[in-house]
Specification:
It is a single chain. This protein has a domain of about 40 residues. The protein is about 45% helix and about 0% strand. The protein has three helices and no strands.
Length: about 70
């Protein structure tokens, strides 16, 4: 089981921002994209959350990230 990192409260990815197809990674990219909206004092915490989220995504099984299960048809 992977640890869930709380969202930062920053908006979802922009419509023109490319996505990876992995919601957890796309959220990290959106959070980092909006980093300029946070006070400088909050940047370190935002990068730490981004790192934790990406680490969780790397540690997760692929079907845990997409919600799909191999061999199942939609």
């Amino acid at each position: 089981m992977t640890e869930q990192v709380p969202p930062t409260g920053i908006d979802e990815p922009h419509a023109d921002q490319p996505t990876t197809g992995v919601p957890a990674v796309d959220q990290v990219l959106a959070d980092v994209d909006h980093l300029d909206q946070l006070p400088l004092e909050e940047h370190l915490g935002a990068f730490e959350r981004a790192h934790d989220s990406l680490r969780s995504a790397l540690d997760a099984r692929p079907d845990d990230l997409t919600g799909e299960h191999p061999g199942e048809s939609a």
